[in-house]
Specification:
Helices cover 34% and strands 27% of the residues. It has 312 residues and is an alpha/beta fold. The protein folds into two domains: 2-118, Rossmann fold, CATH 3.40.50.720; 121-269 and 295-306, Dihydrodipicolinate Reductase, domain 2, CATH 3.30.360. The chain has an eight-stranded mixed β-sheet, covered by helices on one side. The mean pLDDT is 93.
Length: 312
């Protein structure tokens, strides 16, 4: 399959490494600047490079577009690729409003293309194991405590490489964590949840809020508390899931019950969730079926996060 990559940062490199191992062809690289596009194209041996997506899409042999650009650019770029009749895998967020996401769902249906959103945590084996326990009725959750902590006071990626933009805590990492919590609970309707959130002040060096907490409750069933910070010198992602039957923890991709290791994430290849996710995207295209995480699957998450945005 001939691919177009939009974005030339670390996560684009992860997708490129996976796609190369899957045997796909790198056709066009689109960067924020001509220089970044040229560098990425040279590194991964793309046939073409440009700083304009519209120019790249003029190549009719492009089958799919992978969008790994800054959060605020995803909606416009995804709509452009969908409208051009290309299949799309888009990093979080799909869009920065619920209305935009819903409109994109309608557009993708009309154009008949596959659109998948990179909710990578759904493909983490430890998360999948807990979801299976809940779905089978073997674990009834009373409370989920989730934390994402990172030190990101400068414009750098998660590899430590400088770049011209930074992730948005609300519209990237919070989307991951909120979606994971909702998915573990079977994606309950957001309109029926008691949702409360607080966002910290904008940090001068990055121009975005660097701390937030979100609490929501499925009435009469489960309480969820999410705490996140880009100011923390202690970094990591973990979930504590307190159930009627037992309490489970996910940390460092490992699933624990007390000291018992139920799934050892340290034995995984580094990007196993990303690889499973990308394989699913291409399989959905080949089999002409909806992907595991299509647009409609993420609209409830978008609705909840959108309601926490002070600008909305």
């Amino acid at each position: 399959m001939n691919l177009c990559f939009v974005g030339c940062g670390a996560i684009a490199a992860v997708h490129a490494d996976i796609c190369r191992r899957l045997g796909h062809t790198f056709h066009a690289a689109v960067g924020r600047t001509p220089a970044s596009a040229a560098d990425f194209a040279r590194e991964w041996k793309f046939s073409h490079h440009t700083d304009r997506l519209e120019e790249a899409l003029e190549h009719r042999d492009i089958d799919a577009v992978l969008i790994c650009s800054p959060s605020e650019e995803h909606e416009t770029q995804a709509r452009c690729a969908i409208d051009a009749g290309r299949h799309v895998l888009v990093e979080l967020p799909l869009a920065m409003s619920y209305a935009a996401g819903a409109a994109m769902a309608e557009l993708s249906d009309r154009r008949g293309v596959t659109v998948m959103v990179a909710h990578t945590q759904r493909f983490m084996p430890a998360v999948q194991a807990v979801r299976e326990e809940v779905a089978a009725g073997r674990l009834h959750l009373h409370h989920i405590l989730a934390r994402f902590l990172f030190f990101r006071r400068r414009h750098v990626g998660w590899t430590g490489r400088p770049r011209s933009w930074a992730d948005n805590l609300l519209w990237h990492h919070a989307c991951h964590v909120v979606d994971t919590c909702l998915w573990l609970l079977g994606m309950p309707p957001v309109d029926g949840l008691d949702v409360r959130g607080r966002i910290g002040p904008r940090y001068p060096a990055t121009g975005i809020p660097m701390d937030l907490d979100i609490t929501f409750a499925v009435p009469g069933e489960t309480l969820v508390n999410i705490g996140m910070s880009y100011h923390s010198e202690e970094t990591g992602l973990d979930y504590l899931m307190i159930g009627e039957e037992r309490t489970l923890r996910i940390t460092r991709r490992t699933l624990l019950h007390g000291v018992e290791v139920l799934y050892d994430g340290e034995r995984d290849v580094r990007y196993i969730a990303n690889a499973l996710q990308d394989r699913e995207f291409f399989a959905a295209i080949a089999e002409r079926r909806p992907p595991a995480v299509g647009i409609t699957d993420v609209l409830r998450m978008l609705q909840l996060v959108h309601d926490q945005n002070p600008a909305s």
